[in-house]
Amino acid sequence: MDATITGTSAAEIADSVRGLRERGALRPGDALPSVRELAATLGVNRNTAVAAYRQLAQAGLVVSRGRAGTVISGGAPVAQEGVADTVLRDVASGNPDPALIPDPTPALGRIVGRPVLYGEPVIDAGLEQWTREWMLADLPRDDLHVVVTSGAVDAVERLLAQALTRDDAVALEDPCFLSSIHTVRLGGYRAVPVAVDEEGMTVDGLRAALDAGVRAVISTPRAQNPTGVSLSPARAAALRAVLADHPYVLIIEDDHFSLLSRHPYASLIGPAHRRYALIRSVSKFLGPDMCLALAGTDPTTAERLAMRLSPGTTWVSHLLQRLAHAQLTDADVRARIARAAEHYAARNAAFTDALAARGIRTVSTDGLSLWVQLDTTARAAAERLMRRGWLARPGDEFLLDETAGPSRHLRLTVHDLTDAETARLVDDLAAAAVRG
Prior knowledge:
Keywords: Aminotransferase, DNA-binding, Pyridoxal phosphate, Transcription, Transcription regulation, Transferase. One of its GO terms (molecular function) is transaminase activity. InterPro entries: Aminotransferase_I/II_large, HTH_trans_reg/aminotransferase, PyrdxlP-dep_Trfase, PyrdxlP-dep_Trfase_major, Tscrpt_reg_HTH_GntR, WH-like_DNA-bd_sf, WH_DNA-bd_sf. In the C-terminal section; belongs to the class-I pyridoxal-phosphate-dependent aminotransferase family. This protein is an alpha/beta fold. It has helices at residues 10-23, 35-42, 46-58, 105-111, 125-138, 152-163, 178-186, 203-211, 233-243, 283-286, 299-309, 318-328, 331-357, 378-387, 419-432, and strands at 62-64, 70-72, 89-90, 145-149, 169-174, 190-197, 200-201, 216-219, 250-254, 276-281, 293-297, 361-362, 370-373, 390-391, 393-394, 409-412. It is built from 15 helices and 16 strands. The longest helix has 27 residues, at 331-357. It starts with 9 loop residues before the first helix and ends with a helix. The chain folds into 3 domains: 10-72, Orthogonal Bundle (Arc Repressor Mutant, subunit A); 89-98 and 333-432, Aspartate Aminotransferase, domain 1 (Alpha-Beta Complex), CATH 3.90.1150; 115-330, Aspartate Aminotransferase, domain 2 (3-Layer(aba) Sandwich). The protein is globular. 40% of the residues lie in helices and 14% in strands. The strands form 4 sheets. It has an 8-stranded mixed sheet, with helices on both faces. A 4-stranded antiparallel sheet has the order 12-13-16-15, covered by helices on one side. A hairpin with a 5-residue loop joins strand 1 and strand 2.
């Protein structure tokens, strides 16, 4: 079957490869011509070939393997948070402890009321007022508007869609939260990696991303996933100074750990920044199945975000909104959330100390998981742990910079381990983490 690629524009070339793939002329694993070779064969500019391959990569149709070239993708499943089924002891999931999620039963009887009909306000008045007070305490903006979405990932997807067009650049932390990687790639945007160190997103990395023309920045101010680091006040101030010359770049802050965090909120959003969104999901403390996030945004972004909601779900269920409000304003529930925060911090600190005693380092200071540094590659260590009965998540799944080489970090979720399991994992990790 003829597998000749044709076209004179990036779109035509991408459509040609797509058609060849659909007809079976190109199969998973087949290598495509190099950019230089393709440009010469078709008589087009090299940048045109680069753009065509970028479109195909963003659509998930091809995979770049660096010096090994570009190949047709095989439709392999992408990494996701959580593990559906495994016989191994799971320390890869990133889940909260279900035993620490408040029981919603006592609140259910208090939320039933008059049904909400079409044309009524889409945000529960009580939840809106509570959210405004909560967010204004940390982000004192006179222009802050509240929008409710079906979780943080839903908010990020809609925020990017209302502000960007295909092939626009987005600054992402590197390593990065899996859902942010998927959202950017599936939306057809270009991910620009910004390195993360022990104080959060780096100043030089953000400056380089802005110089590269990013139109949005996604930042995690606390408990960055996967590293577990939080923005220091000094770093946040330095990043705000860099962003001051770019007031219309959309800043999206995913403050997913909010009520559970042991660190104060430090923000990239300056007092004069024009486009921003602070997102706080309830999934870590009220449970992932609540599927609800609260966003505080500037008026223009709020209006556009509401428009992105209107053609689909229109609004988040008022029953969910009322349930979230009832729990968030309940003293017993808030006390339970506070105890959960103490539990996560204490268990992670104890595990970090046990690792340090064995010469293994972690930079994590907050969150549900730990970012463990190794002397060997993460995939090699994960395979060794698997043979010992553990399911661990290698850091490679969170990396954006393909030139960085294999990861030497594991992300481990250990807060629900028993003392005996903790001791065994530390021993097994020490054996698996050696160079080799």
